[in-house]
From TrEMBL:
Coiled coil: none
Protein name listed in UniProt: PAF1 complex component
Domain (N-acetyltransferase) ranges: 1-115
SUPFAM superfamilies in the cross-refs: Acyl-CoA N-acyltransferases (Nat)
PROSITE patterns: GNAT
GO molecular function, one term: acyltransferase activity, transferring groups other than amino-acyl groups
Organism: Heracleum sosnowskyi
Amino acid sequence: MDYMTNIVAHHPWQRAISLKNHAIGSISVTPLDGNDVCRGQLGYVLASKYWGKGIVTEAVKMVASTIFVEWPHLERLEALVDADNLGSQRVLEKAGFQREGVLRKYIVLKGRTRDVVIFSLLSSDTRS
């Protein structure tokens, strides 16, 4: 409950990923400020039981189709993915994100320094 009260309730843009009215994950966009105000960071989590079913891909596509309208100042949506997480990289590619490169030794996950792959989607990429 602390997580819901202290984190989710105060997050500027976070949604549940639901299946049959049951939350199975979440997706969020974190706005940046200052000189980075034109960018947002995409993040998502999904219960492992539901991996590989296209659920997160659909959620990311939904976010991509609405976030630039909801936040007109946003020009770029970014996502950072562990270099070994090929499934998550594929999700972003299917949703139209472009792989831009590898940030070496960028984060610590489970006690190990890890490389991440940066993906982006521009507002201009979503216009028909």
